[in-house]
Amino acid sequence: MEEIEVLIDEEEIGLKVREMAKVIAREHKDEKEIYFVTVLEGARTFSDDLIKEVMALGGFKVKNYLVKVGSYGGGSESSGKIEVKKGLVEDVCGKELIIVEDIVDTGLTLCFLKEYLLKEKNAGSVKICSFLDKPSRRKVDVNVDYVGYVVPDKFVVGYGLDYGGRYRELPYVGVIKG
Ligand code: IMP
Ligand code: MG
Fold first, then answer.
1. Distance (Å, rounded) from C-alpha 113 to C-alpha 36?
2. Radius of gyration, alpha carbons of the chain
3. Is residue 104 in contact with ligand 1, taking CB distance under 6 Å?
4. CATH numbers and ranges of domains, the chain
5. At residue 76, does pLDDT exceed 90?
C-alpha cells in the first residue's frame, strides 16, 4: 500500500465535526426539523458523524435525504457535465435544505446540485456544508455556508474520500505520497 501523509488526524476531525454541528444547531434552533441532503458516496462518513453530533445536542428532529451526483462517464476529474444518478423521490418543496458534501473542488457538482434542488425540486432554500474546501481549483462560484477545513491543491483521501474506490475507510484525511 502507498504511504499516506496525514493532513488532518482523527482527533482533529472529531473536534471539527462537533464544532460544525454546534454551529448548525445554533442557527436552526427555531426550526421544527433540520433537512440534510447527503451527496453519496464521499460525504457519507462526514454526514453520519455530523448528524450524530447534531442529534446528540438534543431537541432536533432530523431528516437525511440521499442523492448521488456525478459527471457523465465517471472518472476522478469532473468533466463539467454533471448528472443526477440517484435523485430525490421525497417531496422537499419549500423545505430549507442543507447539502452535506465531502469536498468542494471545482464547485461544478454543488452548483449543479443546488440548481437541481431549487429549480426541479422546488426547495425553499439550499445551504452548503462541506467538510473540506479546495478553493484554489474553483471553476464556478459557489457559496459554502459551513466549511470544516481548507485544503491545499492536492488530491486528498480518507474520511469518506476515495481514490479509485480505495481509502474511504481511513479514519484520517491524507495525501498519497509519491
Ligand atoms: P467538484 O469538482 O467540486 O465538482 O467535486 C466533485 C467531486 O470530486 C467531490 O464531491 C469529490 O467527491 C471529488 N473530489 C474532488 N477533489 C477530491 C480529492 O482531493 N479527493 C477525493 N475526491 C475529490
Ligand atoms: Mg463528493
1. 13
2. 16
3. yes
4. 11-156 (3.40.50.2020)
5. no
